[in-house]
Amino acid sequence: RPAAGKSTPTPHTPAADWGFQQFKGIFMKHILLLLAFGAGCCLPVQAGINTLLRRFLGEPMQAALVSFAVGTLALWLYSLAARHTWPPLSQLSAVPWWMWTGGILGAIFVSCTIFLAPRLGAATMTAVMLSGQLVASVLLDHFALVGFPEHPVSPLRLVGIGLLFAGAWLVRIF
User: Fold this and answer.
1) pTM of this structure
2) Closest to 153 measured CA to CA, from 138, 136, 135, 131
3) What b/e readout covers 38-77, taking b as 16+ CB neighbours within 10 angstroms?
């Protein structure tokens, strides 16, 4: 038993803690990458489901509306279960107008997938949309727009975009 006022030495050293923190950071980054990959897998599945829904409803916009209504209901139920609270109306009214456009962009995206999926096929549609997403993302990063930290365009990032365009083209022609 240690003497009064003296602590028992722990087996953790600063170096060991640093190594664990590094491992934890790398592990978490891989989990986030897997989550992003999984979310990306949802795109062609969602497009296919919404395209089939369109056959039952008749119009792409009706299918998009139902898709958003079901998604809104799911998010509402999640918020209820998680007991999220809403900020006061005065705080909501202070949000800049352009920050409300995310839903419009989502509606455009989902509507386009419903229109494009049966005409282009899942692979071509996804490859070309992914190319557009990457170009927009590089520009958003480069100019630090809409809340993204600055990440300047580099020659290797441009090569990556070129390779993605080449991949989209190969998917389209074969």
Assistant:
1) 0.77
2) 138
3) eeeeebbebbeebbebbeeeeebeebbeebeeeeeeeeee
| Pick from 167, 59, 63: nearest CA to 123 | 167
Contacts of residue 46, defined as CB under 8 A and 6 or more positions apart, other chains included, come to 67, 110, 113
**What pLDDT digit, counting tens, does each position of 24-44 carry?**
888 888 999 999 999 999 999
Place of tokens 């456009």: 101
Distance CA 62, CA 60 (A): 5
The single-letter DSSP state of residue 13 is -
What are the tens digits of pLDDT across the range 97-133? 999 999 999 999 999 999 999 999 999 999 999 999 9
